[in-house]
Design brief:
Layout lengths: L1 H27 L8 H8 L13 H12 L10 E6 L2 H17 L19 E8 L5 H18 L2 E6 L1 H7 L4 H5 L7 E11 L19
Antiparallel strand pairs: 1-2, 2-4, 3-4
Helix pairs in contact: 2-5, 3-5
C-alpha cells in the first residue's frame, strides 16, 4: 500500500514539474515586439544640406517615385507632375543663374557668393508641380512629397525641401529652365526636393508639442 502511495506522489510531482517547465518555456519564447519602420523613418528624417557626389541608384529612385505617386489625392485626380533633374549641366547652370540673380537683383531676399550651391551639392533635384485648376492640388502635392521624403529616409537617402529656388524658377527669370521641364500650361511648381546619399547626419531640432490641442 505504501508503495502505491509513493508511486502516486511521485507521479503528481512529475506532472507538476512538467507543467512548470511548459509554463517557463512559453514565457521565455514570447516574440519580441517588432519595430515600426514607418515611425522610425518619420522620427529619424532630417533636412540634409551636405551630400556625397555619387548618384543614387536607379532602383532606389524608382521606388521613391512609386511611393510618391501612391499618395492620396482628392477624387484620385492625381493633379501633379514630377520632374527629376540629374543632369550636372542643368543643375550647375541653374545654380549659376540663381546666384547671379540674387547678386544683381536688389529685391531678392538674399545674396550668395559665387561658391554657394543652392542645391547643397545633391546629385538629384526633384520638382513637383500641381494643376492650378485643382483646388486641392497643393495639399495633394504635399502628401506626395512627404511620401517621397519618408521613402528616401527608409533607404538612408538624404533629402531637403527647397522653397527659394522654386520661387526663382516660377518667376520670369526662370523661364528658360522652366521651359525644359515640359509642364502643362496650367501647372505651377510647388515643391523642390534635393536628394542624395548623406554626407552629414544632423541632430533633431526641438519640436513644440504645445502646438497640439485636443478639443473634447
Amino acid at each position: 500500500m505504501n508503495n502505491i502511495k509513493l508511486v502516486y506522489i511521485v507521479s503528481i510531482l512529475l506532472f507538476i514539474s512538467c507543467r512548470s517547465e511548459n509554463v517557463k518555456h512559453e514565457i521565455t519564447t514570447l516574440p519580441t515586439p517588432k519595430k515600426n519602420a514607418t515611425i522610425e523613418s518619420i522620427m529619424n528624417r532630417r533636412s540634409v544640406r551636405s551630400y556625397k557626389s555619387e548618384q543614387i541608384k536607379q532602383a532606389e529612385l524608382d521606388k521613391i517615385l512609386e511611393c510618391g505617386i501612391n499618395a492620396p489625392s482628392a477624387k484620385n485626380l492625381q493633379p501633379w507632375a514630377i520632374r527629376v533633374i540629374q543632369s550636372e549641366d542643368m543643375i550647375n547652370k541653374l545654380n549659376i543663374d540663381y546666384i547671379n540673380y540674387t547678386q544683381n537683383n536688389s529685391s531678392a531676399t538674399s545674396t550668395h557668393t559665387s561658391d554657394y550651391n543652392i542645391l547643397f551639392g545633391a546629385p538629384t533635384f526633384i520638382l513637383i508641380a500641381g494643376d492650378t485648376n485643382n483646388a486641392y492640388a497643393q495639399n495633394d502635392c504635399g502628401m506626395l512629397a512627404q511620401n517621397m521624403l519618408l521613402a528616401a529616409e527608409s533607404m538612408d537617402i538624404g533629402t531637403c525641401v527647397l522653397g527659394g529656388i522654386v520661387r526663382f524658377i516660377n518667376g520670369p527669370q526662370g523661364n528658360d529652365f522652366r521651359a525644359k521641364l515640359d509642364l502643362p500650361d496650367n501647372y505651377q511648381l510647388f515643391i523642390g526636393i534635393v536628394m542624395g546619399y548623406k554626407n552629414e547626419y544632423p541632430s533633431a531640432k526641438p519640436r513644440e508639442n504645445t502646438k497640439i490641442k485636443i478639443i473634447s
